[in-house]
Amino acid sequence: MKHITTDEIVNLLDANEDLNIIDVREDFEVENGMIPGAVHIPLGSIPEKVSELDPSKEYILVCQGGVRSANACEYLEAQGFNVTNLEGGMMSYDGELEFK
C-alpha cells in the first residue's frame, strides 16, 4: 500500500495540484473540517459508491487516524484502483480545512 505524509499532501495542495481525496470518516467527524476539495464517502459506503469512482484516477484516502483509510485502500486496491493512504490521518494534518 502506498502512503503519503501530511507534509507531502499540504505541499501538493499549496502547489494547486489536482488531487482526488476521499474522506472516509463518519458525518459527525467531517463536521470538524475536511481537506479542501475532498469528497466525503463514509467507509461503510465505499462498496456501494465504488462504481462512481474513475479507475483511471489516483485517489488519496483519509480518515481520523489512518486505519480506516488503510482498510478502504486495501478494498479499493483489490478492485483495481490506484490508491494512497494518508499517514496519521486528520490527527496529523495541520493544513487548511474546508467546512461543508
Summarize the main sheet: 5 strands, parallel
Number of strands: 5
Number of separate structural domains: 1
Query: Remind me, CATH topology?
Result: Oxidized Rhodanese, domain 1
**CATH class descriptor name:** Alpha Beta
Compact summary:
The chain is α/β, with parallel strands linked by helices. The protein contains 5 helices and 5 strands. The chain is 33% helix and 18% strand.
Main features:
Oxidized Rhodanese, domain 1, five-stranded parallel beta sheet, 5 helices, GlpE_sulfurtransferase, Rhodanese domain protein, Rhodanese-like_dom_sf, Rhodanese-like_dom
Give an overview in words.
It is a single chain. The mean pLDDT is 97. The chain is an alpha/beta fold. The chain has a single domain (2-77, 86-91), classed as Oxidized Rhodanese, domain 1 (3-Layer(aba) Sandwich). The chain has helices at residues 6-14, 27-30, 46-49, 67-78, 89-92; strands spanning 2-4, 21-23, 39-40, 58-62, 82-86. The radius of gyration is 12 Å and the shape is globular. The chain has a 5-stranded parallel β-sheet. The protein starts with a strand and ends in an 8-residue tail after the last helix.
